[in-house]
Design goal:
The strands form two sheets. A seven-stranded mixed beta sheet has the order 3-2-1-4-8-6-9. By secondary structure, it is of the alpha/beta class.
């Protein structure tokens, strides 16, 4: 696949943040190929320059419209990659997920309907159990069954109910998750994109963005029970120290009361 390949204008762009988990991305792309809405392109936003996904992406050439972006592996620089994805996207409607989150068949359809200028679309996720995750990553099943999730002790199973007509009156204001959010490009540009000063995992591309969006007068729209996402189980390292450093950075940034980050899409320093 040509990594600098350009595509015609699309209605929506799906940005998938990845590192090196080929099995997980394989599962994600299986569900991307089964979407009910297909006028979308995909940006694989890889925070390293490994060739581990080359064979997988080659297999989807002609089936999905995919652009593969990479950068040298110099630590956790996810936000830098997200800004690159904003610049390369073929749509003004953008959805951001992680490469270990598989998508309900109506996921893209609902985001395409819900994303508008002036609001962030915020979704939730179901955290799959190890047994169900193994079934999906091994290719034995594509989607988890409701009762098997309960049996295997998947958490937040209630998030799997597809209720597209549910009124916003029944939603509390959700927390922004970097793995399931939709933006209009104009709002991302208004904020100057993602703040690249956050270079530790676990904090930054969501909490910081939610605060700056609120400062800028950007509203929120819940896509809970609409844009459903299943998070594959994996080992979770202790990131307490890293998160604490990012939280301290966040508190310092709030003192300036500026919704534009300096180290973002355009360097303002």
């Amino acid at each position: 696949m040509r990594k600098n390949e350009h595509f015609c204008r699309m209605k929506i762009t799906l940005v998938i943040s990845v590192y090196k988990d080929v099995e997980a991305l394989t599962a994600v792309l299986r569900t991307a190929a089964l979407q009910t809405f297909n006028d979308f392109d995909i940006i694989i936003s890889q925070d390293c320059d490994s060739d581990c996904f080359d064979q997988l992406l080659e297999a989807y050439q002609g089936k999905l419209k995919i652009k593969h972006l990479q950068q040298s592996d110099e630590g956790f620089l996810k936000n830098r990659m997200l800004n690159k994805a904003i610049k390369e996207a073929a749509s003004d409607k953008m959805v951001f997920i992680d490469g270990d989150c598989i998508l309900h068949p109506h996921f893209i359809e609902q985001y395409e309907r819900c994303i508008n200028p002036g609001v962030i679309c915020m979704g939730r996720r179901i955290d799959l159990d190890p047994v169900t995750t193994h079934m999906i990553k091994s290719g034995k099943t594509i989607y988890p069954g409701f009762f098997s999730m309960i049996k295997n002790k998947t958490t937040r199973v209630e998030e799997s109910f597809y209720l597209p007509r549910l009124s916003q009156r029944f939603h509390s204001i959700p927390k922004l998750l970097g793995c399931n959010m939709g933006w209009h490009r104009s709002d991302l540009i208004k904020l100057n994109g993602f703040d690249e000063d956050y270079n530790y995992p676990g904090y930054g591309e969501d909490t910081d963005m939610a605060w700056r969006a609120q400062m800028a007068g950007i509203g929120v729209f819940s896509v809970r029970y609409k844009a459903i996402q299943y998070h594959l189980d994996h080992e979770r390292p202790n990131r307490e120290k890293e998160v604490s450093k990012s939280q301290l950075l966040f508190e310092e940034k709030k003192k300036c009361s500026d919704f534009r980050c300096l180290n973002g899409l355009e360097k303002l320093q």
